[in-house]
Every structure is written in structure tokens, then in C-alpha cells.
Amino acid sequence: MKADLSRRSFLKAGAAGIAVKISLLPSATQAELIETPPRPGADWLSGGKPKYRLDAIAKVTGGKTFTRDYRARDLDGWPKEQAHAFMLHATRVDRVFDGVDLALLGDELKPDRLVLQEDLVADGVAMPAPWPGFYGDVFFVPKGQTARLLGQPVAMLIYHDFARYDAAKRKLRFNDKVVRYGAEGASTTPGPYGAARYVRIDGGNPDAEDRYSALKDTTIRAGFKGTQPQWPAPGEGDAMARGMAAAAEIEREIANAGDDVLVLRRSYSTQSADASAMEADNGNVWYERGSGVLHALIATQSPHEVAEMTAHMLAKSKFALGSIDLRIGYTVGYGTKDHALFPFFCVLAGLYGEGRPVRLANDRYEQFQTALKRHAFQMEKVMVIDRKTGKFRAMTGRYQNDGGGRENFSVSVGTVGATAAQSIYYLPKSDFSAAILSSRAVDAGSMRGYGTLQTMAATEMMVDEAAEALGLDPMEFRKRNALKSGMKNSQGAIPSGALRHDEILAKAEKHPLWANRQKRKAEFEAANPGKKYGVGYGHVHKDYGTGAEAALCALEFDASGRLKLSHVAHEIGTGATTSQAVMAAAILGKQPDETVFGKVRWPQMPLETTDEPYTLSQEEEDKRMANPRWTPSFTSPMSASNSVYYLGHATREAARALVELTIWPAARSLWSRGIGGGQMAPEAVRREDLRVVNGRITAAAMQPLPFAEVAAEAHRLGLVTGITVHSFNRWQWAEAEFELPGTGRRRFAIDALSVKYGDGAPSERKALMTQGGWHFVERAAVSYPPAQRNNAGVTYYAPMATLAEIVIDTGSGEVSLLSHHSILECGNQIVPELVSGQIQGGLAMGIGHALKEYLPLYEDGPGDGTWNWNRYELPTSRDVAVWKQTAEVLPPLSDTDPPKGMAEVVMIAVVPAIVNGVAHAIGKRFSTLPLTPERIKEALA
């Protein structure tokens, strides 16, 4: 992220006076959109387990709809007439854009409004920019310039009615005469996006202080000469120079390696791929010209960013903007709807709709042409292994990813891929660098796996080859090198908690697929001439989190015990809404009666933020910490692996705080009733004895109490009856202390707190509830993880291993999966059925990446607008061994283990497992994905 500009500085430039309201769709809409799931039934939880997902009934009855399903008539307060828009796109970048020729449409089908880049310039509409260059420099290709990337829009056509819109779109599709091109022009594709390098040399053993590491010293950054990073010169000066000296030492060791070590050098490449989310990008926007209210319903994983950047876009424009009312609904995007440009095209459509709501929605051709892609990677890897011990001495990797014509999250994806490249292995010395390049390809961004799929899969392929070269069993080689608890990663950080790779390896080694692989291979091939059998193994762990995760959660109850849960989490298919409700119930002994998800208006939390959690210096952050309302970040977007751990932390902390401040004292009051201190007096009852058993609250043989009875007592006593918390994590949790009236100082793993007081609270205490009916308790002290923790890269991991049983048809070259077995460790499973669903879905995506999915990057790729699922092959049930797949999850070490974010790791291990299985089958190793039948046949020829 660029250090010289923040979101806050943008808003200060003129958008600060715009009110941003982000709301949920009301239940009274004609076609009900349920972003807030239906209230759980009275018996929804049984034995602590949910009977169904909160959105399940809506799903099976057709009531669960997505943002894409809505039109203006379905939205309360909107005009009933719906306008529609579509865009024309550039399919070449070598010639200048010379305008559009709409003569084919005739007078009858001409658009009611044509929007070009020149219109935006004239009207003062700016590009949204979380930081400079993130979304590029222009929406549409300016006349007289070349396109920055293939598929870049050149114009938007708006129609006031559907019939003319539909007819016009059909006429113009695939017509290469509509977009006019002039002479050859200079490239406008931006230069390389960034480069980072992570070097580490340990202190002689895993426990010693590192001689150099990113966490201890710094991450090394570089500029470019052409497409080549220009790294600092090695030396004894600043931290980067010392890091380059450490890198040079590793290079000398590799160059001077003797016969006592194996030096293995390999190149790998992976393809560009499409997320293929069933809901294509879409939005519906109505700009109410009289009031200046911009109403929007947009499919997005990052609603706060959409609202903030929309305010910036229009801050200096002719479009008076009084407020933004952004409604969010169910959506899915596997990351590609997180910080995507498409929502802002939807905003443009609404602005130029002449007071009408305008819907802009990609069809599948347009989705392939413009939606964010998975980054293609080129990788050069070196492994240095001691032949006697079979242990790594060093590993290096040079990674290049193609970000296409807009930067988006490309730098982040590249650096995350580099920090993950070590996979599950301890490396005494390592040097991993990422060069993030631009190109004329469709832009790439966030997508499930986030760079680690590419780099870890390559490492696992190479590990199998290294074991073979050393004459070691692949499992034995892994066991000798697997990270142990307390060891450091390649950035010099110690991962959180216990690392259980040895347990996974022991299980995998004993599994029949592995233990019987040679016998099974001989039997199968004897019985099936022309077929080759193999079993492969892949073992990885995936980080989860961004180093700046923030969340909000509120829990409150009335005197009858009716419990309400409100949360920033919204549903993108992971089951986040279900898991938050289950987590709260497990701690409180009471399932929520009402749930509100996707909540982003929090009047009880008057926090201030510069929203610079990565770039603010420690000195500046220390100054801001003096403000008890400041936080590094207000909230995070929804992503695949942040809900159960990071967003769930806010839920768990809110519930625990409610236990500390309310449940325990109220229960103690009830147990103490009567002469001599009641039933509690004869026992030594401590807070740590408190338990929830069968939905009732008990401790040390005290009478089990229903939640409603405890709630009534809490209200009678005027205790805290509502808790709102704000949490922040930078590879470590922020903690703060709060002075609470009548309670004293308490410390929680949060950085902000608001409370409500019960009916019996004294008037002076109730008078404190001035923030939307809540008392915002300014913290007395706070401890934020230091900014240096950003250099850790990651400290939270979830591991996954997969055994893949494959067969190859030597005639056709087709690879088929007979079965596969996976082993996952994810702490305490909140809802095992959701974990199972993520495993199955992730495996299918990984199998598609390994064997089928492929997009050419340039002129014959998706940017030409002719790609659809007739050309892009996805795996089907027959390809993923749907009836022959099994999985197991390691039991938690204790009931206090936190759940781990696991929705991304489950797609990775199967990729190298398949490639290693192919090597076992035919003795050929592959370094380019996907493994197509043509590549197999060529290798067999």
C-alpha cells in the first residue's frame, strides 16, 4: 500500500460533509431479500448444534435471493420504472480509441444517454482510489488514447426501458465495427506495480535470535528498470542494505555448494483463471437529483469501501451529494467482489440515469471480459538440502505475477504468495521475492487462495522431486523438515499456537491410499491395460487474515431474556451468519432471538480512524493512541477466511464480556438469596466454575438457571444488559482497559466498548447512554500491536493435507480422480457441516485449477468478450470424485482452542497432490498448470 495517501486524506479533500448510510433491505420489499436471516426458531439449537443454516429455509423455499435478483420496483421508496445500462469494451490496445459507431442501431435503438470519459472529466467525476493507481487512472478509454487493458470499457449506453436495451445489446454484441480505432498509439498500460523481498537467516538454530529477518529488521522494497526489480545494494548501512547482504550470503552458499548438498533448481508457471461465481457483478443505483441522495443496491464484499470511495468520486463533481444510502444483500464472489471497480461503474450509471434507477449487470460474457482474475505466476525456485540429514539448508524463490492493466490487490497477492512459499517447512535460510508486473491483460485481484495457491503448490511439487533425488520416502522427508511449534516462518515470526503437521503426516502415512499405493498400482495396471495409476500427496498451510482485521458486534437483552445479536458480518456463502449465532449461544447458553447482520451503522461507536493500519508510522500511531476514540481501522470487508476467527473474535469477546459484567454477578445474586447467603454460602463458588449446561447457567452445584431468569435479575440490579465491542488485529489482538461505573477497571481483547444499563440502573448511570442509547466507555488504556508486526506477514495458519488417487488414460492423456482423502486442522469447529461444505467446495476449485481451468492472458483471452463457459472448462461431479472423497478434521487440543479460518486452505493441497500423483503414475514431472491431456500425451510420446 502506498504510504503517501490515505482514505481519510481523500475525504478531507471535500467529501467529509457527505453522510454515508449503509443499510439492509427491509423485509417489506415485494421480493424479499434476506440479508438479515430469519429469526432462529425456538428449537434451532439442539445440544449446542444448529439444525440448519440460518438462511436454509429461505434457500430451499426460494426466498433467498441475491442482489442480482432485484429491480427498482422491489425496493421501497424507489421509482417503479427501471432503466438499464451496458458497456462497450476495447478489444485491442495497439490503436487509439476513435469513438463509437452506433449507426447499426438506427434511430429507434439509440441510447437515451451515452456516457464517455470526456463526460466524466467535464462533470468533475474522479476515479475512486483507496491508494493511487489502485483502480487505474480512468474509467473509460479517453478518445485519442489506447486502452490500458484488454476489455476496458470505452462507453456506457443507458436505456429507459428494457426492450430497447435488450435489442440494442444483442445487435452490438460481437460486432467489431462498433468501437472505432485510429492510428497506432503509445501504450498507456501502467508500469510495474511493486516489488518486495523477504530474507531470513537464523541464528544457528531455530530458537536463537535471527541474524536477519523481515520482522526483526525490515521487508526489502525495490523500484524497477523495465520489468526487473532494482534491489538496494548490499552493505552494512540501513536495514534494507543489510538484508541484501544477507541475500548475497545465501546466493554465495548456493553457488559454492559441495557434494554434501543437493541443489535443486526448477521453474514453474500457473495460469490465469476466473472465479466463476454464479452471481456475476451487478448493481442498481438511483440518484435522487432533488435531494442529492444516491441510493444504491450493489453486490459487494466491501460496502464501507464502496461508500467511502463513492463520496470521494463525487466530492468535486457537479453531482450534489447529500448522502449515500447503500443497501447490501447476499452475494458471492470468492474474493473478486472485494475492492472491485464494477460497483463504481454502477454508480456512474445511476448518476447519468436522469433521475431514474439504472441497473448495470454483467452477463457471463461480460463477466469473463471484465471481472477480476486469478493472477498468473512465473516462479524460479531453488532448494538446498543436506544429503546426510535430509534437512533444508536454504530455499529461494523469485516470483512474478501478472496483475493486468489495473493494480488492484496485485502487490498484496504477490507478497502474500512470497511469504507463503516456504509452505510447512522450517528453513534456516530463505530469500523470497515478489515482482508484481502490469500488462494489457484483464486485471487480477483478490481470489480464493490469494497467491499462496500458486507458490505453495510449486513448493510441494518440488519437495516430492527432492525426496526422490535424495532417495527418501516423501513422507519421511517432510517429517524431517516440517515446522514445529515455536519455530519461525520465513519472515521471522512465530506462528500462533501449536503446529500439528507431524500429526497430519502420521495419519497420512498410515492411510490405505498411501500405505498400499505400490501394491494397488501393480494390481490396477495389470487389470486395466492402457491405464496408469498413481497416488500423490500435498501438504500446506494457509495464512488467514490481512494484518488489519477489525470488526464490531453487539449483544443485548431485555428483561424477559430476549437476546439480540448485531454484527458487521454479512453472508457471502461461508455460513458466517450461522456461526456467529452459534458462538454467542455457546458462551451465553441462549440462542439469539433476533439477528442483524451486515450492520454498518454503529452510532454507539463514535470511533475515529485514519484507516492507515499498514502505512502509519509507529510514531504517528503512538500520537493517535492518546485519543480514546481512535482506532487503526473501523471494519473489514467479508472474505473467505476472516469470519469465524476475526469476526468471530468480536462475537466471542462481546459474549465473554457479558458473562463477566452481567451473567456472573446476576447469577451470583440469585444463588445468594435467602438467609445466611442462600444456597451459595456453603460452597466456594468461583467465576471459573461458571458453566452452561443444557442451555442453563450453573456453577459448583448451584441451581441451574435459565437465561431469562438471569436476564430479569440483571435488569433489576441495573447491571450491563448490552455490550458492543470493536476489535482490531495486527497478527496479534489489541487489548484495552475500561473503567465501568460500579464495576471498576476491566481489560478485554478489544479496543472500544459501549454498554447499555438495565432497567434498575440509577438515573445518573442511564444518563450516560448518549450514543444512540448506549454509553460509549472511553478506554483508560490501550495496547495496540506495534506497526512492526506488519512485517510478520502472517502468524495465523490452518493446515491441510490431501491424498489424491488418480488414473491416466495413456491414449487420451486424460487424468481422472478415483478418490481423494483430506486431513484438516482448524481448531474447534463451530459448525462441522459448514466446515465439510467448505472442504468439498474448495477441493473442487483446486481440482479445476490443477486439471482444467485456463484463460489466455492477452488478445485471445477473455478481454476479447467471446469467452463463456462453452470455452472455459469447469470441473463437474465426475471430475472431482464426488462420491469417493473423504475428509477428517483433527480434534482440537482442548475446548478452548479458537476456530481457524480454513475456507482458503482447503483448495490448495489437492493441486500438488494431483501433480505428484501423475509423477507416481507415469514417472514424469510437470511444472506448468493446468495438466491438460495434450501435455500428458506429449510427455508420454
From TrEMBL:
Domain Aldehyde oxidase/xanthine dehydrogenase second molybdopterin binding: 508-593, 634-880
Coiled coil: none
SUPFAM superfamilies xref list: CO dehydrogenase molybdoprotein N-domain-like (SSF54665), Molybdenum cofactor-binding domain (SSF56003)
Residue intervals passing through the bilayer: none
InterPro entries linked to this entry: Ald_Oxase/Xan_DH_a/b_sf (IPR036856), Ald_Oxase/xanthine_DH-like (IPR016208), AldOxase/xan_DH_MoCoBD1 (IPR008274), AldOxase/xan_DH_MoCoBD2 (IPR046867), AldOxase/xan_DH_Mopterin-bd_sf (IPR037165), TAT_signal (IPR006311)
Gene3D superfamilies given in the database record: Aldehyde oxidase/xanthine dehydrogenase, molybdopterin binding domain
Domain Aldehyde oxidase/xanthine dehydrogenase first molybdopterin binding: 260-482
Residue numbers spanned by region Disordered: 613-632
PANTHER family: ALDEHYDE OXIDOREDUCTASE MOLYBDENUM-BINDING SUBUNIT PAOC, XANTHINE DEHYDROGENASE
Name under which the protein is recorded: Xanthine dehydrogenase family protein molybdopterin-binding subunit
Organism: Bosea vestrisii
